Amino acid sequence: MPRTTTVECPGCPPLRALTFDALGLIKVIEARTKEGGVPKVVERWGDPDAAKCVLAASLDDRKTDPLLAVARKSGVIEVLNPLNGELSVTVSNVSNGNARPEDDAIVGLHLFRRQILESTSRSCTFLTCTTKGNATLRSVEMTDSPSDSNASKTWNVCGAGNISFSQVDGNESYAVFGGKGVEVNMWDLDKCTKIWTAKPPPKNSLGIFTPTWFTSATFLCKDDHRKVVAGTNSHQVRLYDVSAQRRPVISFDFRETPIKAVTEDLDGHTIYIGSGSGDLASVDIRTGKLLGCFLGKCSGSIRSIARHPELPVIASCGLDSYLRIWDIATRQLLSSVFLKQHLTKVVFDTNYSEDVKYYEADVAPHEEQSIGEVQTADETEKPRTKRKKSSKEDRGSKKKSSKEKDRTKKLKSKKRSKSLENETADDE
């Protein structure tokens, strides 16, 4: 049974989040002021299927024509409308028909806001990266019969090892890759050339060398691609400065389990890290100082952390099937939702507003019943109610009261026996 938190949840500000799980389901969670800020599942897209497990997702939240890209375990990339879940384009990422998608799964996906490749206005461009390091920059036409346009580039980002992640900077000009046996390396997306590769740290004082195994990374600032923060399987957090040196500028350990998720804050120097044991903390990367851990430990590995670009909150999800919303200033748990399946990713929809009603209007009438079922099934996390144990004083008072009752009963019986004896004596 998953552990439940004992922290009282005050509720969330108005927000909208999308979660992705191991059965390929996409669930829309909304928190509204009139409902006390309690997040609830309002929509569920797709059918449960393990082959459709969402491995990566990217949301382009522009004001006009927003798009959502999803990479599935079957090797299919879907482009959807994040407002109603309507499928726009489906593209297969499997180049060779004989190869199984599971052998070279997609581990990184990014949907571009700007047009990098020469294509029409009715097209979307995204970057994918597989476990074996096959990176593809592709443009797809947004038509009824989708097909890949001639504008596409493919290259390999590693000679050996397995890629675990890929991340694109805020200006969408550079990308970093890394993984098991693959050092963090940066590529220029316009030229598809490698511009920097990290150098492994030297052996420690005991002469022990830690093998390279990166699990996650993020750019420290959206406007500056030179600083990258990466987490390792050996519970280390490293800060790299491309313009300074190849080895880490700062490196420190966090707990004793692998780092599974890293994301940056808007201030440009604070990061949020999640571990395989469910620890979530904020760190000042300038000094490597731990600012504090978030209250209410998760009961499973954290796989994704998202920072809201406007509200002072972050969201985390992972293998304990809970979506949790946290306050950044107090590091307190605001609310949580149990979503049944192992969660792989969470993103915020920044265009959400309580005044806009198009979210409800986009839902088809035949979906209203299923949505209601989801609302009742996906319960919010509540602290367990424990039975109060009786104290020693209560037990003592109960014993005293029972003894007094026995005494009164005995006195009454004695009085009755005496009265009967007197009556018999009078009769004689």
Give a nutshell description of this structure.
With 428 residues, the protein is mostly beta strands.
Continuous helix count:
3
What form results from the Cα inertia axes? globular
* CATH-defined superfamily of the largest domain: YVTN repeat-like/Quinoprotein amine dehydrogenase
Annotation, overall tally of beta strands = 28
Query: Which class of the largest domain in CATH terms?
Result: Mainly Beta
Q: In what range is the share of β-strand residues?
A: 35-45%
Biggest beta sheet attributes: 4 strands, antiparallel
What is the rounded distance between the termini? Answer: 78 Å
Strand order of the largest sheet: 3-2-1-28
List keywords for this structure.
4-stranded antiparallel sheet; 428 residues; Quinoprotein_ADH-like_sf; 2 domains; 3 helices; mainly beta; WD repeat; disordered C terminus; repeat; single chain; Methylamine Dehydrogenase, Chain H; disordered N terminus
Written description of the protein model:
This protein has 428 residues and is mainly beta. The chain folds into 2 domains: 363 residues, Methylamine Dehydrogenase, Chain H (7 Propeller); 37 residues. Helix content is 12%, strand content 42%. It has a 4-stranded antiparallel β-sheet. A 4-stranded antiparallel β-sheet has the order 4-5-6-7, with no helix packed on it. It has a 4-stranded antiparallel β-sheet with strand order 8-9-10-11, with no helix packed on it. It starts with 14 loop residues before the first strand and ends with a helix.
